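Chapter review. Work through the record for Glucose-6-phosphate 1-dehydrogenase before attempting the end-of-chapter questions.
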Amino acid sequence: MQHHKRPPASILFIFGGSGDLNYRKLTPALYNLFLDEWMPDRFAIVGIGRTEYSSENYRAHLQEGIEKFSRRKAEENGHYKEFFEHVNYLQLDAGDIASYQRITEYVQQKETEWGVHPNVIFYLAVAPQLVPSIAQELGTLNLCKDKSATRIVIEKPFGHDLESAHELNALLTGLFAEEQIFRIDHYLGKETVQNILALRFANALFEPVWNRHYIDHIQITAAESVGLEGRGGYYEHSGALRDMVQNHILQLLCMVAMEAPVSFDANEIRNKKVDVLNAIRPIRREDVHESAVRGQYGAGWMKGKQVTGYREEKGVTPQSNTDTYAAVKFFIDNWRWQGVPFYVRTGKLMHQKSTHVTIQFKEAPTFAFPSEAAESWRSNRLTISIQPEMDIRIRFQAKRPGQTMTLDPVNMTFNYEGSDDHTPEAYETLLLDVMEGDATLFMRADQVESAWKVIMPILETWETRIPQDFPNYVPDSWGPEDADALIARDGHSWINLPPEKK
Ligand code: BG6
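Structure tokens for Glucose-6-phosphate 1-dehydrogenase:
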């Protein structure tokens, strides 16, 4: 039995209640919070959608989602009934202004029933084009004037480019106070991502060497083995750079590169991160081809199964120039990172699913050792695996046992699974934070815009220059050859993570 402070009474309205995100991620996350006794003593979850559902059918639909996607397996599922007593469905046409009154009525009814004024959370799990109009309507409700109790959660993508993100921010900040707006980047909710701060700032070992004097370069890989998963309609207008680099990868980069925060205050952490984004050297349009590589997969085979090429996917135009792979080399112009390249890459249908950060240290001087010792010499490397492996590996030199001074690189590994099999999903952490009103792991307006600013020159250049070689990589590979050339020009190569032997 856990003993912790639960969040205050809350009502969660989920727009897009009959949609995929709620089915796969939000309800399973809320269910796990419920099992772990993190849900408030008094709470209600109200799915909002246009599809017709009786509350009973709606619950059955979500229960199926839990069965498929929840991290908890069947034996713990005895609590369904109890959980679903808190779940309801409101059929509502988001375009019909009058129907928003029903939200207010629902809140009033709960307030009377519970005898407390609850937190009211509006979660917009809807297509991006619907966000402005829903936010506009919600903003007119009296409820939203309560800055401390009413919150709005916005899913990614947050805008399509710098200009649209700026417009969306202007609209939202005109209707809500910044502390009411929770912009999600679900990578920030991942345990292994949060642990980057613990690793860096709770240990005396790393921080003194965490800079350009000791680090040669840094790599961030977010490789996916899945393809579009039926999301062609969305992805075709996005592409890898927008879908992964602008948000998840740049946020990982911020965690790795930020200065030590003075406190764990939400704004302090976000200030330190935004400093990193603002220090990234702008890539000049004429240099984009040297700093960034794009790719698109063709038809081929993936683990023994035939897969169609991107251009033949549903929702994709046959001449599409959308990138399904992107690699970029960034520099951060500040005292800590001057001259240290940050290589980042992401792609769909890659050989292996693996998200990891590699800190490659400079070579130690080898002169004291006999020359044969130096043959297998490898410089130190710290690898932070985010998923699916969840570990931290340090590579160092060790003497091979025997009468000669021969060295071998060896790995020391910290593995989360061994220490705790109870790892919450990102959405659990983030939903709990929303109920508690803690915005540390959410994107502030200026953060989102700074991240767009970083990638705009690449986006604009790619949009105006038609790629000549698409499709340029096959499924089950590590992406286009140009990406290898990008890093090879500096004398390095991409580091692919071998799964840790268990
Ligand atoms: C989403 C992207 O934000 O992140 C998807 O839109 C991508 O295209 C997903 O597949 C990856 O998330 P995760 O948690 O599976 O690494």
